[in-house]
Specification:
single chain; alpha+beta; seven-stranded mixed beta sheet; six-stranded antiparallel beta sheet; 25 helices; 27 strands; elongated; disordered N terminus
């Protein structure tokens, strides 16, 4: 007894040493790599901002235990704490002089006190990014926001502290015009946009987190002395023997060395029917053991498992392409340089050649240039269109994750679709049965259903459900026996029955030739066929299939009308794939494909110059969904698929793709119009603010009018974006 206990302690200690040795290199190699969603070439080992666009870097592979995005939490605090100050500043600036709440000098100081926390504290991250944009000489939207808000605030501070420095012609309501409300509103609106963007971007890691969450936390390891113990998954090594009990997940990739059971591998293969595993068969980590007990020997652990490789595939696909490069960003660098140059030129031109006080005129006009060029309209041009389009899509059962999906969807010319639960309903359903040797169809169905009452197989459930729907009176089965992978045996009402495939019929010495041709025809249509034998003779056959969705044919016709090539890729057998493809008129199809194969197919089509969309519903589709130019998930599918995709069809109806494409085309047109409005305002307003008409008309554009023009440009953009609500899709 003591000797046995000693061996157990020694074995456990040996495993503990082995665990520590394995954990050490993992810790030494641990290091999160951060990258920019828009510029994946930027990679570093610490958090920060992208030196090109200023966007916050994010980890390539997130930690499952990550808490709420700290930047999102920080921006929420800055926004909500300062929003009352912004509102108060705006109300005071708009209505204070009308109702005489206080005299003009007092109002200026109050606005200064109210707006300063908003600009200097809430807007600090934006000004920081603005400064950073000058270091690598990469001006971006943060440069515009920083210059616009900063110019409005600094000008107003000077006007409040030293009002006598300005000519009286710029005095309104007894004071020099100040624009604290413009600076505060710019900061608050920018924070709102950042909050919306950060919440949307946080979903990009949800797919990988869902995948990581599939793996069990522990494994039941069998020690050399025969004892068993639960150990953390990262303490499992190649060669360990592990027990997998019914209802548990397989802890890691391995080979069955004892027992037999049915495993649900749909998370890997997409095939909804459980797969029977016996001694010598390979199993995949994170798949679900539905029935018997297994003992496996681990073959792959850690990053070598199939699940880990899928995680890496999704991460690689997500960062292999940048999100939509907004048209505003494409010209932002040139725009910023031009505006700053015009402002400086205005300052010096007025200072040297203008009337007295020339430098004051120069400063005022330079500030007016910066204020009218403030990127409110430019910043709202695309987000407003995206927001309206997203709402329009949601009311029609179409969810867009980001602007990139809306932009790219209109360019798609090739659609790769999964079969199960995308083209088909994904649930086995009874098709038909045929009788032989004097048995009619209803009797064949009744006997098969009576026998199958003892089976938990999905095909058996479809047969039992069909018999009960037809009012058949089922009887209890005796001596029920399940033969893994080939069928079941038993007795019903004194009849010895066998229900299964041709292998079972051969074992029972049943001649299935009379129904062989009918069986082949049914298989060619994509059905699973089972023979029924009664008392040593063929009684009939039953067919169960995965029905095609009623809307699939119409959806495919709409897609073809739009010039989209449809390619089917499924984990099902080639015969089944061919049958479904032919029934739907799909000429390009691929069967028996795994997650990596689907990813390779999408990559190959993209290398041919095609813009590819991928539509699927399962975990096995996740890498291809992430890699595609547009990933489209069925809302009836798995969370991982929806998190990997950029578009989700809530109803699982492929007709939504055609509607989404129409909305995409309308949205991009609307975005171009909005950008046109924004640039027209700047093209007309900047020269006027610079004073180019002063010599002929004597007109100058005060910063107050510049702020009004800036507001009007934003109103035009918002009003135009709202027209998308009336688009018919």
């Amino acid at each position: 007894m003591h000797e046995q206990h000693g061996r157990a302690v020694t074995a456990a200690a040996g495993h503990a040493d082995k665990d520590r040795a394995a954990a050490a290199p993992a810790e030494s190699q641990a290091g999160t790599v951060y990258t920019c969603p828009m510029h994946p070439e930027i990679r570093q080992d610490r958090p920060g901002n992208c030196p090109i666009c200023g966007m916050t870097l994010e980890p390539i592979v997130p930690d499952l235990d990550d808490e709420e995005n700290p930047e999102l939490k920080d921006f929420q605090q800055r926004f909500w704490w300062t929003l009352p100050l912004t509102v108060a500043t705006f109300v005071l600036a708009m209505f204070g002089h009308q109702y005489g709440w206080m005299n003009a000098p007092q109002q200026g100081w109050v606005e200064l006190a109210l707006s300063t926390p908003v600009v200097l504290w809430a807007g600090y991250p934006f000004f920081k990014r603005c400064v950073q944009s000058f270091m690598p000489r990469s001006p971006n939207m943060w440069t515009l926001i920083g210059l616009g808000a900063g110019a409005a605030y600094l000008y107003s501070v000077i006007a409040t502290i030293a009002p006598n420095a300005f000519p009286q012609t710029f005095a309104e309501h007894g004071r020099i015009g100040v624009y604290f409300e413009a600076a505060a509103v710019i900061v608050s609106l920018t924070l709102v946009g950042q909050l919306l963007e950060l919440k949307a971007r946080s979903q990009t890691s949800a797919a990988i987190k869902s995948l990581l969450g599939l793996a069990p936390k522990t494994a039941r390891r069998l020690n050399p002395d025969g004892s068993e113990m639960d150990v953390p998954l990262d303490h499992v090594h190649v060669g360990d023997r592990l027990r997998v009990r019914p209802g548990e997940k397989v802890p890691t990739d391995g080979i069955v060395i004892e027992g037999s059971s049915s495993l649900d591998e749909s998370m890997i293969t997409g095939e909804p029917i459980p797969v029977t595993k016996r001694v010598g068969d390979h199993v995949i980590g994170a798949t679900m053991n539905t029935a018997g007990s297994l003992i496996i020997e681990s073959e792959k652990v850690g990053s070598q498992t199939v699940l880990s490789q899928i995680v890496q595939l999704v991460a690689q696909a997500q960062h292999s392409k940048a999100p939509m490069q907004r048209m505003a960003d494409q010209v932002a660098g040139f725009f910023v340089v031009a505006v700053v140059a015009i402002a400086l030129l205005t300052l010096f031109a007025w200072g040297v050649f203008g009337p007295q006080p020339s430098w004051v005129y120069g400063l005022i006009n330079a500030v007016a240039v910066l204020i009218i060029a403030c990127p409110c309209a430019l910043g709202l041009a695309t987000p407003m269109s995206i927001m309206v389009a997203s709402g329009k899509g949601a009311t029609n059962g179409i969810l867009f994750r980001d602007a990139a999906a809306i932009e790219n969807l209109r360019k798609v010319d090739t659609l790769v679709v999964d079969k199960t639960e995308t083209l088909t309903q994904g649930k086995p359903a009874f098709d038909r049965c045929l009788g032989a040797n004097g048995f009619d169809e209803l009797e064949v169905l009744r006997l098969a259903a009576s026998l199958d009452q003892g089976s938990e197989h999905p095909l058996a459930a479809a047969i039992v459900e069909a018999a009960r729907a037809r009012g058949s009176l089922l009887q209890a089965a005796q001596n029920f026996e399940s033969s893994s992978g080939i069928g079941v045996r038993g007795s019903v009402a004194g009849k010895k029955l066998a229900l299964g495939n041709t292998v079972l019929m051969e074992q029972e010495h049943i001649d299935a030739a009379p129904l062989a041709q009918a069986a082949d025809e049914l298989r060619a249509r994509g059905a699973s066929v089972m023979y029924l034998a009664a008392d040593g003779a063929l009684a009939g056959l039953l067919a169960v299939s995965d029905p095609i969705k009623p809307t699939t044919a119409e959806a495919l016709a709409q897609l073809k009308d739009k010039g989209i090539r449809v390619v089917m890729a499924t984990g099902d057998g080639t015969v089944t794939a061919k049958a479904v493809a032919q029934s739907l008129g799909i000429t390009d199809f691929h069967g028996e494909v795994r997650p990596a194969d689907k990813l390779a197919l999408v990559t190959r089509l993209q290398s041919e110059g095609r813009t590819v969309a991928m539509a699927g519903d399962g975990i096995n589709d996740a890498p291809a969904l992430a890699k595609a130019d547009v990933g489209i998930a069925m809302g009836t599918g798995t969370d991982v698929a929806m998190n990997s995709a950029q578009v989700t069809l809530l109803k699982g109806d492929l007709r939504g793709i055609a509607r989404a494409r129409t909305l995409s085309e309308a949205t991009i047109g609307n975005m171009k119009q909005n950008l046109g409005f924004a640039f027209v305002y700047n093209a007309l307003g900047v020269p006027l603010a610079a004073g180019v008409l002063y010599s002929t008309t004597g007109l100058l554009l005060s910063p107050m009018i510049a702020a009004l023009a800036m507001s009007l440009s934003s109103v035009s953009v918002v009003s135009n974006a709202l027209r998308l609500r009336r688009v018919s899709i």
